[in-house]
Amino acid sequence: MSEFQQRIEEYLNSSDHLSRKHIHPRLLKMFELGGMSVAFTRAQGPYLFDKDGNKWLDFLAGGGVYFLGRNHPQIHQALIDVLGLNLPNLAVVNASALGGMLAGKLLELAGPHFGKVVFANAGSESTEVALRFCRQITRRRRFLYVDGAFHGRSYGAISVCGFAQMRTNIEPAMPVCTPVPANDIEALRRELKYGDVAGFIFEPVQGMTCRVLEPAYLREAENLCRQHGTIMIADEVQTGLGRTGSWFATAAMGVRPGIMTVSKTLSGGQVPVGAVLVSEEVYEQVYSGFSSGLVYFSTFAENNLAMAAGLATIQCLEEMDAPNLAREKGAVLRRGLDDLAARYDIVDRIEGSGLMQTMYFKDSASALLRTQQQAMKAVDSSAFAAAVHVDLFSRQRIVAQLPGPGLDAIKVLPPLISTDDDLAWFLNGLEDTLVELYGRRGPVVAVGQGVVQNTVGKALAGLRAARADA
Amino acid sequence: MTSVAESPVAPPRPPGPDFTLAQGARLWDASGRSWLDAASPAHFLGRNHPEVHQALVDLLAMELPNLSVVNASALGGLLAGRLIARAGGGFGKCVFANSGSETTEVALRFCRQITRRRRFLYLTDAYHGRSTGSISVCGVPSLRAHFEPAMPTTTMIPPDLARLRRELRTGDVAGLIVEPVQALTGRVIDPAFLREAENLCEAAGTVLIAAEVLTGFGRTGHWFVSDAIGLRPGILTVGKALGGGDLPIGAVLVHEAIYERVYSGFSSGLVYFSTFAENNLAMAAGLVSLDLLERIDAPARAARLGAQLRAGLDALAATHGVTVAGLGLHQVVHVPERANAVAEAAQEAGLIVGRPPQGLHGLRLDLPVVCQEADVDAALEALAAALAGTPTSGARPGPPTRSLGLAPPTPAALAPNRSGGPVLLDADVLVVGASVAGRAAAAAACDAGREVWILDAGPHGPKGAETWTTSEGLPIGWTLDVAHPAPATAPDPRTDAFVAALQAVGATPVAVPAHDVPSLTALQDRGVRVVSGVDAEHLTVVDREVTGVTGRSADGSHVRVSAGVTILAAGAIGTGLLLAPVASPPAIRFHLSATLFARTDVPLAPWRDRRTVTRTDHLRIHGATIDDRVPDLALLAERLVHDNRLLRRTLKRADCLVALHLEVDGEASSGTLATGRLGPTIDFKVADADASRMTGAMAAACDLLAVMGAIEVFPGIAGLPDALAPADLAEQLRATRLPGSDLGLVLVTPHATGQIHPSGAVNGLLRVVVADASALLGAVGPDLEHETTKHAASIGAGLAHVG
């Protein structure tokens, strides 16, 4: 073991103390109060392990970046190989060889509609590039985005996010971003008619809400955008590269946006990356007559490691026929979730596509449970989902996601390499959690008695403690 | 190897050699020729450092958890601890990001979060990244060409304490962001300025952000410039070198107190979150880079190599008439008008330098700290050859590089939207002008069920005013958006004093009903779309039908609005100018108005409480009115005072300030509007009789002020038409019982009424209607504004029946 490895190894088992001191103690406190304080020490495929070898099923997958699973050997090998080549990297002159290769591969998957790729360091940065290009081309200022949208957390990106909570205390956001309701073509038509819209940005399946935009809506939106000189931006940061059952969800819907952003899966989970695919038409308009060639430039974009991770990732995805595999596994997952929805009345609905699915909750018909749900919602509109989340983590050893502010829902992004057993682990675990919540104790009984006895109770207590803090 | 022409990657990079190998400070092509790379500051440790690589390989082999979202990252904690220890300055927490731009985003976000303020200050020529937030604090206008409006409320200032004091005094500044040594210019910001800036920020409750993305980790001869000069910024951003040249990374160091304030609420658990931030590879690269930099004592080495480099550059500067700025191994050679030519020549000679963005001309030299003395010599040799071989001027075709010169032009002036198409808007009812008349007409039209747009030039306001943009995307210069609610029934000491004074001189106060015109914000809430910062220039007329207007926005963009019905409410002059080219030029009457300020020795009440116009009582004498309606002092001060020291001093005692407003019916003052070859002209004359009424009104007002307890009056004459005989008036005012200072302090705004049919119809034109005082010729009652409002509302309401 190298000295470097040793240093890290020694620290792993107490992994949170420096984080607690130097990074985000309040967040860690939240996890602890929620009974989610576990120091993971190893990771492989869809699993995370603690030092005692306890295994968690990771269906959050780093927010979707581990579509191929954690620590994928082929991706590791590609990174090691590239490091051994001593290649030029981030040179300010001339093209990058690996960047060209990855761009070529992305364009091949995305189809002939796209002609060029701009690389960035994250999904947020991809959104920034897309917004910038739209204004550059159209000389207009306004953007339209869809209610419930998520496009990143940098200033431009957050200005087109459809959750008011995210913008607390950052107003004024970038001027002139207007929300439109999902799947409402008349609303879109009305806004586009002003003729001042630079770009319309959307996720074919929304990353936070998992809402699937209707293909007919998007196809008509494409027509309207063309008619009114507005650029259509498809954000496929989460959906791209196979997750929803096709290489790109928009392509499967028959939609041809002028700009498409890709990230997450492309990184192999190892190196921050983002990619912006643009049609030749868009590219020509951005760079025609452009003197400095630097409409967008980033120090780190197109770095060799990111490009290598991307190339290896796409190769693995192709070998596994990712879109078809995701469609098959997604169907199993969806059937299981639909079945739970049919049998448990706290489930409102299931939304999503392929290997991104969200279960929404509603008030139960059971008076006891309903009362408790309502009490929890008074604290936080997603408190019930938080209880499910915590029980999944601590009792079922399943890592899922609370998808977005105010959403009473649980979301999962199962890796492509999940086995049928993994899917069963999740579905059975989720059912067991629901049964527990329907059970005699209910989610808040323990708290009501002033005795914090179960983990759900702890979560709620934590929530309240943190509230009192504030 | 992919060539530039074939690569599907955008943006196209400048052409260059096909490099095939990289190590340390150099890049090689297939033939074995090598280049020194001074243009990649991320490779401060050189390219492909074997120990960085080994650490990454070791890390991958450990199969660690990574980006688990639900828990702490072991490596993140380790690196954060190292950074905090290294940075000095008392930082307590570290937030990771994926690039320098992202660190700027985090820093800006935190400032707004904890101060609950909006505005940011940044320095001329600053560089802070390319995302929307970070580009909004870049002091190089070309970087955001065609990207306005980015983040509103950022203000560029020179590194000048007086200016900084002035900006901070407004109390609305969330953060000041500075690079202690600037990336693009090499300018070393005076440490004395920075230290005093820290004090001023502290006093003003503004967060100081030191951006050391480029300068951090030893490049300047210090681990961090801010720490070396004794600065204690609240936030420090770092990046570049930290990634070992292999990984994207950024880090934001914050004081404990800032962290606590940012995250004091549960709901802000995710004020900032990034999928990839704190990823293992980046953290490992950071750890091993810090190890290596410490082992070679990077600051000392950079200082030594930097001194060698700078000595050579200074010698070149003397020979070639260029200038050099920088610190340690960050040096910038300013080569006006031939920067790109010299960069290309240097590349020919084996040295790659960083090129300036449009508008600047500094070639950046950021050699790696691992380079040798011989490399520094080689760099100097290549640059000398490039400078000698590149003619100083005139040899290269193409437009000259724009120099920022002494007075930096505004972003709008640098990047006019000349090539772009017009901004097109499509309105049902278009109201031109957002003053009382325009707002009243818009409100009524809105109530009548019409879709209404308001287009307004928006006063461009005093220097340094915030640049805002409407919800519709056009810049607002500075729009007076004063609501006019009914007068408060609560007693107002100033009004009381005025009424008492009126009674004391035997005059009868007349109460004037208040009008109730919604503010622009209130109108927007009702669905009216407001586009401000646009000068309406021409009516579009097709076959005698007005189909809208064309105009120009503050940044030079053409704006074209088509409208079903156009309501003109731009004031008699504005409306007249629009009508002059297409209808017979209307005659105009001028009504003089003025505001007199005086100081009392007893405090009356703070002005702050008078947020809105009080409209209570007035005295009417011989065709003139004197009343005490004065809008919010801040608004007046903005318009009147920004270059008048005397009044500014007085405003510090604003609780002792009273003001009276004077208006004179322009019974005999008239003018005409015409369009000539040089554009529209106004030809007008203020009649002697009207001028003398104003003089009389001013004298009467001074008497009233004296009764109200004034000890000094500020009559001012600037801007008055000649007919008012400024000198005579000053004499007359001095003859009153009050001592005065005859400085330019009086606001004179000619109101006007024009010859438009009382219905608002314009003779010979369809689909257009006039809603302002232009249509009130001869109808001036005791309250022009009230009459105008009533008129405008009736015009707007009438649209319910118009197709």
Give me a quick take on this structure.
By secondary structure, chain A is an alpha/beta fold.
Describe the structure.
The complex is a heterodimer of chains A (470) and B (803). Chain A has two domains: 210 residues, Aspartate Aminotransferase, domain 1; 246 residues, Type I PLP-dependent aspartate aminotransferase-like (Major domain) (Aspartate Aminotransferase, domain 2), CATH 3.40.640.10. Chain A has 470 residues and is of the alpha/beta class. Helices cover 45% and strands 15% of the residues of chain A. In chain A, the strands form three sheets. In chain A, strands 4-10-9-8-7-5-6 form a seven-stranded mixed β-sheet, with helices on both faces. Chain A is globular, with a radius of gyration of 23 Å. In chain A, helix 14 packs parallel to helix 17. With 803 residues, chain B is an alpha/beta fold. Among the domains of chain B are: 122 residues, Aspartate Aminotransferase, domain 1 (Alpha-Beta Complex), CATH 3.90.1150; 177 residues, FAD/NAD(P)-binding domain (3-Layer(bba) Sandwich), CATH 3.50.50.60; 198 residues. Helix content of chain B is 31%, strand content 22%. Chain B has 22 helices and 34 strands. In chain B, the strands form seven sheets. Chain B has a seven-stranded mixed β-sheet with strand order 5-11-10-9-8-6-7, sandwiched between helices. In chain B, helix 1 packs antiparallel against helix 9. The longest helix of chain B is centred in the middle third of the chain and has 23 residues. The radius of gyration of chain B is 32 Å and the shape is elongated. About 12% of the residues of chain B have low confidence.
- The total beta strand count of chain A reads 14
The Cα radius of gyration of chain A reads 23 Å
* Structural class assignment of chain B: alpha/beta
Silhouette of chain B: elongated
Oligomer: heterodimer
Largest interface, counted by CB within 8 Å of the partner chain's CB: A-B, 143 and 143 residues
Structural class of chain A: alpha/beta
CATH class of the largest domain in chain A, please? Alpha Beta
- Measured as a percent range, the helix fraction of chain A is 40-55%
Order of strands side by side in the largest beta sheet of chain B?
5-11-10-9-8-6-7
Number of domains of chain A: 2
How much strand content do the residues of chain B show? 15-25%
Distance between the termini of chain B: 66 Å
- What number is the mean pLDDT of chain B? 77
Largest sheet of chain A: 7 strands, mixed
Q: Supply the CATH superfamily name of the largest domain in chain A.
A: Type I PLP-dependent aspartate aminotransferase-like (Major domain)
Low-confidence stretches of chain B: 393-421, 459-488, 608-616, 638-643, 715-726, 736-749
Q: Gyration radius of chain B, to the nearest Å?
A: 32 Å
Count of DSSP H/I helices of chain B: 22
Report the average pLDDT across residues of chain A. 88
